[in-house]
Design goal:
With 261 residues, the chain is mainly alpha-helical. It contains 7 helices and 6 strands, in the order H-H-H-E-E-E-E-E-E-H-H-H-H.
């Protein structure tokens, strides 16, 4: 069952993100690499690498957007979940009651005013993925940031290399003005989005390594029990280090409740 959040701002931001990624793919492939390198082996290789990154970016975004982030069940399962999370937290951690959902919440759970539900290990509600970032989709959100960063870096490197190559008159670059205009716009967007996702990734990694969430960090709530960095990462990515850390595969979700209308 797909999780869904009907939010106009989130739908717009998610659609805009797709437009930027697919637009970058078009500019890099058809306005930069092919006019510059033709259909050489290097051209095919670069286009293949970039389209692989674009596929992983969009896949991570879709999974982050459609995965239940950890909605707290409304019913008999709530107490079981509270006890399970309390057992994993510090002994002095107290549960808190949500008046809007009328349930006891486990540690690190917070109410999202956009989704109208309490979310397990909620970090924040992100309009770019039109969903909350919580226990079961933080991995996919991180992968989305990671691959957007790689996309941005790839675009900037290719654009700079083309400028350097065409600066040599012996290379015979015959570029149209529109290609340079598209390239300059793409470089600007790649720089801005690259810096943005780098800052977001640093913030996310800081929270993960300290076993806390963005909301708890802002509220200066004591983090969870002290664990090694690898233990915290394994909890977010769903197991020991493997190739699946870098693929947008879904985590095992013990919550049986889904988003209610």
């Amino acid at each position: 069952v797909l999780f869904r959040s009907v939010d106009v701002c989130g739908i717009f931001c998610a659609s805009f993100g797709w437009a930027i990624v697919l637009g970058a793919d078009f500019i890099i492939c058809f306005q930069t690499i092919i006019p510059w390198l033709g259909f050489s082996s290097l051209s095919v290789f670069l286009i293949g690498v970039f389209n692989t990154l674009v596929f992983l970016t969009i896949s991570s975004h879709i999974v982050a957007m459609t995965t239940n982030p950890g909605t707290i069940p409304r019913g008999d399962e709530t107490q079981q979940l509270v006890e399970m999370e309390e057992a994993r937290s510090e002994p002095n951690t107290t549960k808190n009651f949500c008046k809007r959902c009328n349930i006891d919440r486990p540690p690190k759970a917070h109410h999202c005013s956009t989704c109208q539900r309490c979310i397990l290990k909620m970090d924040h509600h992100c309009p770019w993925v039109n969903n909350c970032v919580g226990a079961y989709n933080q991995k996919h959100f991180l992968l989305f940031l990671f691959y957007v960063g790689l996309d941005s870096l790839f675009c900037m490197i290719v654009l700079v290399c083309r400028v350097i190559s065409c600066a040599n008159p012996n290379n015979g670059c015959n570029s149209e003005a529109s290609e340079w205009l598209y390239g300059m716009c793409l470089f600007f967007f790649a720089l801005i989005f690259g810096l943005f996702v780098s800052i977001m990734m640093c913030d996310q990694m800081s929270c993960i390594l300290n076993n806390t969430t963005g909301i708890d960090m802002l509220k200066e709530v004591n983090p969870g029990p002290k664990r090694t960095a690898m233990e915290n990462l394994q909890e977010v990515f769903g197991g020991p280090l493997s190739i699946y850390w870098f693929l947008p595969t879904r985590l095992k979700n013990p919550l049986t409740d889904v988003y209610s209308r």
